Amino acid sequence: MMGVRDRECAFEKLFKENYSQLYYNALYIVHDSEVARDVVNDVFTRAWEDFSYPHHRYGVAYLRQCVYNRCLDYLKHAKVESAYAKFFLDMSRHGIDWNMDEQEEYIELINRVMEKLPVRTRFVMDQCFYEGHTYKEVAALLDISISGVKQHVMKGLRLLRESFSIEYANRKITKKNR
């Protein structure tokens, strides 16, 4: 049976032999040195938690795949954050005022409203605001007129405004009652 010191030595060897390669793989994908370091460190932290020498499963290919998957998760999350930022900007242009301190609550409210929208209206809103497609592109996708797309957008925005107005009124009442 191997001791704790043998386990530590085996893991240290795995770390030293693979860290640089994994870091550069991550850097190639995410284009941010700090994020690349964090990704590789997270992968090695998880590997250490599960590591049992001599029965470890952590070969170079496995670690590379873990780094790749973590990088993709990071990029997906960054894309979602970017989409929400764009969405907030677009909504403010359409008359919805945002308090950035309450962003998480707004996201939850938007998601609730979006879930209640008719399927086609939700699709149009997703395409126009999250995916960044033009009305013309969405009209071509759905084989409807541009004015049909505009009607769906106006309906979605109206429901969002109403929901935010109700939420704002409820917050004012709650604050008054404190």
Automatic annotation (TrEMBL):
<protein>
    <submittedName>
        <fullName>Sigma-70 family RNA polymerase sigma factor</fullName>
    </submittedName>
</protein>
<dbReference type="InterPro" id="IPR013249">
    <property type="entry name" value="RNA_pol_sigma70_r4_t2"/>
</dbReference>
<dbReference type="InterPro" id="IPR039425">
    <property type="entry name" value="RNA_pol_sigma-70-like"/>
</dbReference>
<feature type="domain" description="RNA polymerase sigma factor 70 region 4 type 2">
    <location>
        <begin position="108"/>
        <end position="160"/>
    </location>
</feature>
<dbReference type="InterPro" id="IPR036388">
    <property type="entry name" value="WH-like_DNA-bd_sf"/>
</dbReference>
<dbReference type="InterPro" id="IPR007627">
    <property type="entry name" value="RNA_pol_sigma70_r2"/>
</dbReference>
<dbReference type="InterPro" id="IPR014284">
    <property type="entry name" value="RNA_pol_sigma-70_dom"/>
</dbReference>
<comment type="similarity">
    <text>Belongs to the sigma-70 factor family. ECF subfamily.</text>
</comment>
<keyword id="KW-0804">Transcription</keyword>
<dbReference type="InterPro" id="IPR013325">
    <property type="entry name" value="RNA_pol_sigma_r2"/>
</dbReference>
<feature type="domain" description="RNA polymerase sigma-70 region 2">
    <location>
        <begin position="14"/>
        <end position="78"/>
    </location>
</feature>
<keyword id="KW-0805">Transcription regulation</keyword>
<dbReference type="Pfam" id="PF04542">
    <property type="entry name" value="Sigma70_r2"/>
</dbReference>
<keyword id="KW-0731">Sigma factor</keyword>
<dbReference type="InterPro" id="IPR013324">
    <property type="entry name" value="RNA_pol_sigma_r3/r4-like"/>
</dbReference>
<dbReference type="Pfam" id="PF08281">
    <property type="entry name" value="Sigma70_r4_2"/>
</dbReference>
